[in-house]
Amino acid sequence: MAQLELFPADPVSLVGDPHLVPALREVIRVGFSDRLPAGTGEVEVRWNPRLRSTVGRVLFRRIAVIEISPAYHDAHPGELVETLTHEYAHVLLPGQGHGAAWRREFLSALARQGLEPPPDLLRARNQAPGSGRYLWLCTRCETAVGSYSRRRRDEVASRSLCCAAPVQVLDRASGDAAPPRDFRVQCRRCGFAYAAYDDRRLATRFARRHRCRCGGRLRVVGPVVPEQTR
């Protein structure tokens, strides 16, 4: 496999698909210029046709391997730069997931490239659209912000990137809004909601194992009584 150097004197070197390597090289040059002195060693970037419900991913092996879904980007070619930026931010911050540090790195790199932040959590969380039964919608602008095969316990605490508004869960099988979970886990001190379950035992287990960011203990509240329509 031919190796393409990013810069002759730079510690970052890229190998992989001849179409993706130049694209990632430009993303690193413009979006991550402040991180170049630190370098990331060797990075491989390649297409993976088996990725159907995922836009892209990073595998940390002997070297970091970025895999991109050809099916998704054939349908959305304009999002390739955003996806490469998303994944390279993971390369720089291994083990950070989609936390605050990763988000700062990702959004800063997009800004340096003159790109707007993604309008929804769909691409920010790396989920391909249309891949799940349960669709998350922004309650303010109704933008799709997620698509999952199963309901998530953190949906009660999630907010959209577009409006920073709570999400609403739509069941695609029935076409109706999914009913609220019966048992919610909330902080005793500040009232922040962390998770929701249909099983009280699971909710209690979560409450016992975790603490709120403010340091308060968690409690189980429920069952949730749906609001009556007037």
Strand order of the largest sheet: 1-2-3-5-4
Helix content: 25-40%
CATH-assigned fold name of the largest domain: Zincin-like
CATH architectural label of the largest domain: 2-Layer Sandwich
| Rounded Rg | 20 Å
The best one-word shape is: globular
Structural class: alpha+beta
Any overview of this molecule?
It contains 6 helices and 12 strands. The strands form 3 sheets. Strands 1-2-3-5-4 form a 5-stranded mixed sheet, covered by helices on one side. A 4-stranded antiparallel sheet has the order 7-6-8-9. A 3-stranded antiparallel sheet has the order 11-10-12, covered by helices on one side. The protein is an alpha+beta fold and 230 residues long. Helices cover 25% and strands 23% of the residues. The protein has helices at 20-31, 70-75, 80-92, 100-112, 121-124, 200-209; strands at 3-5, 13-16, 42-47, 56-60, 64-68, 134-138, 144-148, 167-171, 176-177, 183-187, 193-197, 218-221. The protein has 3 domains: 3-112, 2-Layer Sandwich (Zincin-like); 121-177, no CATH class; 183-221, no CATH class. The termini are far apart.
SSE topology:
Blueprint: E1 3-5, E2 13-16, H1 20-31, E3 42-47, E4 56-60, E5 64-68, H2 70-75, H3 80-92, H4 100-112, H5 121-124, E6 134-138, E7 144-148, E8 167-171, E9 176-177, E10 183-187, E11 193-197, H6 200-209, E12 218-221
Parallel strand pairs: 2-3, 3-5
Antiparallel strand pairs: 1-2, 4-5, 6-7, 6-8, 8-9, 10-11, 10-12
Helix pairs in contact: 1-3, 3-4
